Amino acid sequence: MPSLPEDSPDAAAEADGPRRRLPPEERREQIIDAAVRFFADVGLDGNTRDLAKRLGVTQSLIFRYFDSKQDLIEAVYGRVYLDRISPGWAALLRDRSRPVKERMTTFYREYGERIFDHDWMRIFMFSGLAGADLNRRYLDHLGRTLLLPMLDEIEAELGFAPSPEDLWNLHGGIVYIGIRKHIYQMPVPDDPYPGIERAIDRFLRV
Amino acid sequence: MPSLPEDSPDAAAEADGPRRRLPPEERREQIIDAAVRFFADVGLDGNTRDLAKRLGVTQSLIFRYFDSKQDLIEAVYGRVYLDRISPGWAALLRDRSRPVKERMTTFYREYGERIFDHDWMRIFMFSGLAGADLNRRYLDHLGRTLLLPMLDEIEAELGFAPSPEDLWNLHGGIVYIGIRKHIYQMPVPDDPYPGIERAIDRFLRV
DNA sequence: CCTTTAAATGAGCATTAGATCATCAAGATC
DNA sequence: GATCTTGATGATCTAATGCTCATTTAAAGG
């Protein structure tokens, strides 16, 4: 499939024809989308002029929609953290009609599909390094609503109880795949899920 | 033990008495030391004026010892990456007079002592996010000189061969302890080694 | 087609940050 | 104690960056 004609000159910025007026809500969303991508690439210190260039608008326009850069970053956090944890997972993990191993495998497959994502991984890391307590709140929530239940279910079905720390170890080993790929840009398997299943297997083996 | 009298006024900057002349080599080292700490705290975008303030010297002095900020960062990388991997570990892991499990436990105890470190963890992450290929080179080296031998040894002694990906999973679970602590500032056990041993245990169980 | 409104622009202000350099003075040498 | 070397300072230059605002103009309403 040949590249479309109109993106020939300078792929980065959208074709900068005459100035386009968008409904405020739409423009705002567009800016946030671009900002997520942009800050994920260059870090939260990335400057607003470069972001504007990517968007194909002027830098001052950004400040029409956000009071300050910090305000924009807050919106980026909102977008990126939004719905990262599916409300169905807690129920899935407690569904005793299925073996725990299967539940955990399903969970980590779905979880992986949400977090093995360039923008998420990097913004999560940037915001963690910046000291944002969103990270702590997120991981706290994850621990309370997903890992602790997992613990209970393992004990109920398999008769042994790993420590929370053990579960964090399993979890960390899985998340580390995304870190290697998106933070360190190391090669990782195209399909990480067989490896993840083996890790869960080892974890549940008595 | 009561605090010493001379650090009373403003603990951050060293007592700024009259200007002190240091031998160049000593001053250079002092700047690198402070820079490691400083950049680990605030990120590689931290500015040289704040760094100078911490050191208790003028900003321009930094540029007497380093051609550019990038040059200083390079020196910081050098300091931080230097000797992070002990040359003895490859031999330790291949020492067939001891059980692999014991070798791996010893290795990860010593490795943990070197990498569960605030400055290392954070600078490694900052440089990874910045795209420095030091991270890739470091992890490549780690994989080739330590993880692959581990694989061989496990196969030789226990008769089964995990995939490299499985070993990265073990490794990641361990490293994640440091990430939780130093990047996300989450609580982790004071003594992580029992948990690490259990992880190695699970990994080697047939 | 004309009017109106508000989305978008572009010039520019205030600060900050990397880098430079003439000048000062600590401390070694004689 | 006078001299000299060079480590350290402070003022400053330039470019970059967050943010503002008067002006322009796309597009909706009549």
UniProtKB/TrEMBL annotation, chains A, B:
InterPro entries: Homeodomain-like_sf, HTH-type_TetR-like_transc_reg, HTH_TetR. It comes from the Bacteria. Residues 25-84 form the HTH tetR-type domain. Gene3D superfamilies: Tetracycline Repressor, domain 2. Residues 47-66 bind DNA. Residues 1-24 are annotated as: Disordered. Keywords: DNA-binding. GO terms for molecular function: DNA-binding transcription factor activity; transcription cis-regulatory region binding. PROSITE patterns: HTH_TETR_2. Pfam families: TetR_N (PF00440). Coiled coil: none annotated. PANTHER family: BLR6905 PROTEIN (PTHR30055:SF181), HTH-TYPE TRANSCRIPTIONAL REGULATOR RUTR (PTHR30055). This is TetR family transcriptional regulator. It comes from Roseivivax isoporae LMG 25204.
